[in-house]
């Protein structure tokens, strides 16, 4: 019997590894030969394309489909989400629609659709120019959030506390479409879900910590911990998120939805039809035992049933990012070998080496490393992360 075949868009060792373990044939599509030199997943089935959305990509997949049926095209990378929807549609594969992905990726389209369904509770406006922004805030109460209509990784997000903040903005940012929203001063969380033919299951509620220090941007995420208890009931949260995903017409697969809760009111910030970044899917597995990466492959290939048991957290899990001064030349790092095998330590990851210059953290992609720990509770896991980060020392050249 011939194996099932899945196409994976984007460099992701996690999905390739899962496919191999499940004895599934896969074809990996990468959009740049020089971008992934350290990957261990490159094999003869890897196809290089100049652009995921190019006609040539579809042409190659149609040729493959003639000889072996492609069951599904999957991506969990932000740049691969829209091309995946297009390829699935062109190959007559039932999946998340192009229209749905467009609405999910574009924050203006998302707000517009929520408003049409009477579900939006955040004042907003699409911004094309400096004058558009001035007109929107006139007569309203500060602060506001200004950000690209499409984006991820906490990049190019500006908090506007006064008129002077607007005048200090680089005018070049108005060359792209922006959206301005009323700032919601509440607790921020992410909701990790997997949808099974419209049955939306919440696998975790993750509490996030944002940078509020001298080094990192204010909206850069520096930590996540789970599980967490909310000021609203689990039943209400489940109903609210399910309604939201229904409006987005997301019926199957992963979703990572960011919310703010203030005075027991839920505000949708944004969503993505993929798992959350920052190793959140790994935290979910450490805490609950559920492997969302497994589900991402098994569900569209009809290799699993909907989990019948309720989702329960067995332990706490957390990740914390290092916070170090920028523009320093690194001399040495101490403590990595000593602390990596301590109880409850899952991973210590630092992507700097002696001689490197420490970066300015303008987005989540600029962070230099992290610690992942577990514990009896989410807070004990986070405390362990903070303890290790305080013990690992960075020495810089004079």
Task: Provide a concise account of the structure shown.
With 398 residues, this protein is an alpha+beta fold. The chain has helices at residues 13-21, 55-67, 81-90, 98-105, 107-116, 130-137, 163-167, 234-247, 280-288, 292-298, 336-339, 378-391; strands at 5-9, 25-30, 47-48, 70-74, 124-127, 144-148, 158-160, 178-182, 187-196, 199-210, 221-226, 253-262, 265-272, 316-321, 330-334, 345-350, 369-375, 393-396. An eight-stranded antiparallel beta sheet has the order 13-12-9-10-11-14-17-16, sandwiched between helices. Strands 3-2-1-4 form a four-stranded parallel beta sheet, with helices on both faces.
Percent in strands: 25-35%
Average pLDDT, rounded to a whole number, is 91
Decide which structural class fits the backbone.
alpha+beta
Q: Report the order of strands and helices.
A: EHEEHEHHHEHEEHEEEEHEEHHEEHEEHE
Major sheet: arrangement of strands:
13-12-9-10-11-14-17-16
**Structure annotation, total helices:** 12
Ends apart, CA distance between termini: 65 Å
The unreliable regions are: none
* Main β-sheet description: 8 strands, antiparallel
Radius of gyration: 22 Å
The coarse silhouette is globular
């Amino acid at each position: 019997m011939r194996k099932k075949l899945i196409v994976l868009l984007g460099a992701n060792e996690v999905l390739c590894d899962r496919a191999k373990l499940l004895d599934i044939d896969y074809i990996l599509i990468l959009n740049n030969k020089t971008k992934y030199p350290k990957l261990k997943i490159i094999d003869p089935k890897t196809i290089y394309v100049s652009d995921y959305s190019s006609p040539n990509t579809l042409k190659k997949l149609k040729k493959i489909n003639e000889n072996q049926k492609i069951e599904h095209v999957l991506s969990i990378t932000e740049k691969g989400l829209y091309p995946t929807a297009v390829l699935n549609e062109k190959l007559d594969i039932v999946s998340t629609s192009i229209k749905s992905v467009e609405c999910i990726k574009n924050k203006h389209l998302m707000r517009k659709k929520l408003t049409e369904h009477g579900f939006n509770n955040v004042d907003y406006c699409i911004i094309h120019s400096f004058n558009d922004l001035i007109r929107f805030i006139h007569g309203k109460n500060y602060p506001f959030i200004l950000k690209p209509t499409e984006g991820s990784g906490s990049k190019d997000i500006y908090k506007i506390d006064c008129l002077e903040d607007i005048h200090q903005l680089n005018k070049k940012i108005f060359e792209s479409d922006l959206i301005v929203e009323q700032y919601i001063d509440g607790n921020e969380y992410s909701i990790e879900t997997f949808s099974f033919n419209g049955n939306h299951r919440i696998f975790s509620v993750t509490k996030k910590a944002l940078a509020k220090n001298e080094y990192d941007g204010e909206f850069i995420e520096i930590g996540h911990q789970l599980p967490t208890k909310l000021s609203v009931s689990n039943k209400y949260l489940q109903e609210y998120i399910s309604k939201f995903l229904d409006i987005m017409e997301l019926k199957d697969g992963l979703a990572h939805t960011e919310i703010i809760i203030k005075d027991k009111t839920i505000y949708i910030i944004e969503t993505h039809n993929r798992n959350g970044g920052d190793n959140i899917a790994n935290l979910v597995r450490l805490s609950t035992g559920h492997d969302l990466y497994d589900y991402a492959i098994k569900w569209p290939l009809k290799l699993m049933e909907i989990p019948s048991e309720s989702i329960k957290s067995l332990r706490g899990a957390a990740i914390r990012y290092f916070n170090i001064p920028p523009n320093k030349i690194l001399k040495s790092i101490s403590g990595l070998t000593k602390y990596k095998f301590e109880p409850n330590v899952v991973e210590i990851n630092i992507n700097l080496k002696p001689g490197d210059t420490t970066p300015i953290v303008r987005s989540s992609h600029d962070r230099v490393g992290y610690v992942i720990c577990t514990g009896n509770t989410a807070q004990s896991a986070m405390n362990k992360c903070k303890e290790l980060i305080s013990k690992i020392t960075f020495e810089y050249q004079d």
